[in-house]
Sequence to fold (266 residues):
Amino acid sequence: MPETRELDLFTTMLRERGAIPIPCPLVAIRDAPDPAPVEEWLRRFIARPGDDLILLTGEGLRRLAGVAERAGIRDSFVAALRPPRKITRGPKPVRALREIGLDADLTAPTPTSAGVVEALAAFDLTGRRVGVQLYPDGDHQPLLGFLSGAGAQADAVLPYVYASEADDERVLGIIAQIAAGEIDAIAFTSSPQVRRFFQVAAKDGRVDAAREGLERILVAAIGPVVAGELAAFGVRADVMPANETYFMKPLVRELGEAFATRDIWP
Fold:
C-alpha cells in the first residue's frame, strides 16, 4: 500500500508477477500548509549554506526544491546544496540528490535517524551549522538532541505533511477481506501507513481482528523502519528486501519468492 505517487508503479510490478493487486493508498503527501517557514528556511540556507545538511527523506528534498521553484530561487538553492557535507538517512535521499546532479557525502549505516547519529558520532560537530530536513510524525528529538549535545547549531525544516488518502470504509473493507481469507499478502512501504491502518481499526474496535488477520497472511515491509513499526503493533514482517535494498522492485521480488514456496503465484 504505497503512497499515491508510487502506487501505479507498484501495482504494475505485482501484475507482471501474476498477482492481483488490491490498491488501498493509506496516506498521501502534501506540501506544508504554510509555505512561509519553509521558504524562510530556504533563504537562510541560500544565504549561509552551513557546514552540514541532513536529508532524512528523498521526498523532503523534492518538496524543498518545489517550494524553491515557486519562490523563484531554485537555482540558488541547488547551488547552495553543493558546499555542505550532505548526510542521508537512506537510499531515497541519495536518489533525490542525484536527480539534481549531486551526491551524498555520508550515508547512515542503517536507514534510520539512529543510523544518522551513528554516522556522525565519529566527527567533531562543535560549532558546525547543520541544516536538518525532517519528516512528519517522526520522533526527531533524539537526533536534534544529539546535534545539540555535540555542540552543533541545528536549523530544522519540515517541508511536507501526511494526509489521509483512503477513507475509513475502504481500510475497513481491506481488514474484512483479510479476516475472510480473501487476501494473501499485504505490503507496507512507510511507517505512517502502518499507523493509519491500526488507527482506523481502533476507531471501529477491530484492532484484534486486524492483528489476527495479518497473522494468517504474508506481511511485507519495505525496510527495517516499517518492520519496527509493525512490531510495535504486535505484527511480524514476513517479507523484507535484503542487503539494504529497500526499494519497490526488491520488495516485489521478495514477495514473489515467498509466494513461490507456497505455490500461489506462478
Summary: The first helix runs from residue 4 to 16. The first strand starts at residue 27 and ends at 31.
